[in-house]
Amino acid sequence: MATPRLTQQDMTEAEQRELKTRLDRSRIAHGRVLTNSEINHIKKTYIDQLMAAREAEAKKTRQVKKKQTYKADKEATFTWSASTPARGRR
């Protein structure tokens, strides 16, 4: 099950600011306005990093949730007397 690709609307405000900062840093480093191809390449690499980080976080939470799930006691056996009323049915 592949997760859908993130878009800028799906990002938090902090992530959007980080993307703008990366674009500005790249523009300053090149000393000119970036082409559409360069902008798209920067966006694509940042989104790939975000998706990988989110997937790693989701994997950790799944592992923790799996550890915390209820595990039945294998030593215990089912007793009918525990599940039936002591006085019988009325």
Structure in words:
Helices cover 61% and strands 0% of the residues. It is an all-alpha fold and 90 residues long. The protein has a domain at 10-68. The protein is rod-shaped, with a radius of gyration of 27 Å. The chain starts with 12 loop residues before the first helix and ends in a 7-residue tail after the last helix. The model has no long low-confidence stretch (mean pLDDT 86).
Q: Structural class, please?
A: mainly alpha
List segments where confidence is low: pLDDT < 50 over at least 5 consecutive residues: none
Euclidean distance between termini CA atoms: 52 Å
SS summary, helix count: 3
Largest sheet: none
Radius of gyration: 27 Å
Shape: rod-shaped
Helical residue percent band:
55-70%
Order of helices and strands: HHH
Number of strands: 0
Percent strand? under 5%
Short description:
By secondary structure, this protein is mainly α. It has helices at 13-30, 36-68, 80-83.
What descriptive keywords fit this protein?
90 residues; mainly alpha; 61% helix; 0% strand
Architecture blueprint of SSEs:
Layout: H1 13-30, H2 36-68, H3 80-83
